[in-house]
Amino acid sequence: MNSGALCYSRAALDTERLRAFSSVSATLPIPPESSTTAHGPRHAGLFVAAYLAIVAAAFASGLAWLGEFATVMVATLLLWPGLKRRSIPAILVWLAVVSAVAALALVGRGDIALDFVPVVVNAALCLLFAHTLTPGSTPLIARAIAVIENPERAALPRVAAYARGLTLAWALVLGAQAVVLAALIAFAVPEGFLAAFGIAPPIAIAGETWRAYLHFGSYVAVIAFLALEYAFRRWHLRHIEHVSLPVFLTRLVRRWPALARSVMSDRERSGA
User: Fold this and answer.
1) pLDDT averaged over the chain?
2) pLDDT value of residue 228
3) d(Cα 214, Cα 178) in Å, to the nearest integer?
4) How far apart are CA 166 and CA 143, in angstroms?
5) Could you say which DSSP state residue 29 is in?
6) Per-residue pLDDT tens over the stretch 130-168
7) Does residue 146 contact residue 26 with C-beta atoms inside 8 Å?
8) 49-53, 102-106, 107-111, 209-213: which range is least confident on average?
9) Which of 35, 43, 122, 222 pairs with 177 at a CA distance of 20 to 30 A?
10) Angle, vertex CA 47, rays to CA 44 and CA 49, nearest 5
11) pTM of the entire structure?
């Protein structure tokens, strides 16, 4: 084969590869690593610092309105991508949180407003995963594969289907946990949401175990699911190489802003 024919064959092969993962690379352009760490983490760090300062002030001063403000602030930030694109689920979740906080403030029980933060976190992440499963979008896990490793990997056999299935699994797990956490807050006695209004819950959850799971156990459950999924993935997709779990988590944390920006820009790219 002469050099011209060889170059033509390589160009044709490259074209086919581009077509194979064009849905990923077009939806999620992978910026240089420095660009994923420029503004996003700095703004996120400032927000976290402000949030922690408000929470600390709420505990130190006993002023319930600080906790109420912190809860609404977190809900607004986490749901902002959905609110910006006028997503009905995001709007409903935000209204539910604000209404619940306002109702607690009216009865003088704003001190338990911060209990809603884990609910909002799980609900917001559920909506994020679910949004990327809509027609014309790329599943969030496929985006993560493209950013953490490379777009070609998402086109490997069985990887694309696994990425979509895992994105759905995360949406279901996070959504179910948000419902469970909301139920714990509602049914707890004597410090739960319904008890604050003098309503006897249909299922009474006594003691402080519910709050331990709310603020600690729920995050452990997510980490456990992440670890179990990673172990299953290494077995299910054993025909390809995998980075170690610490490397995977480090890259995920460092490059998460690129994933978030890709989801928020979907609507702009589609012209909706």
Assistant:
1) 78
2) 93
3) 10
4) 12
5) -
6) 988 988 888 989 888 887 777 778 777 788 899 999 999
7) no
8) 49-53
9) 43
10) 110
11) 0.73
Query: Does an H or E element contain 189, and which?
Result: strand 188-189
Q: What is the pLDDT of residues 88-98, one digit of tens each?
A: 988 999 999 99
Q: How many CB atoms lie within 10 A of CB 267?
A: 16
How far apart CA 114 and CA 18 sit, in angstroms, is 47
122 strand-pairing partners: none
Question: Can you give the pLDDT at residue 67?
Answer: 83
Q: Which residue matches tokens 């999924």?
A: 229
pLDDT at 14: 40
- Catalogue the long-range contacts made by 205-210 (C-beta closer than 8 Å, 24 or more residues apart): 210/184, 210/185
Dihedral angle of Cα 174, 102, 58, 78, to the nearest 10 degrees: 30
Question: Cβ–Cβ contacts within 10 Å for residue 63, how many?
Answer: 14
Q: Which two tokens stand for residue 51?
A: 């949030």
Measured between alpha carbons, how far is 106 from 120 in angstroms, rounded to an integer?
Answer: 21
Of residues 66 and 46, the one with the higher pLDDT is: 66
Q: Are 263 and 127 in contact (CB under 8 A)?
A: no
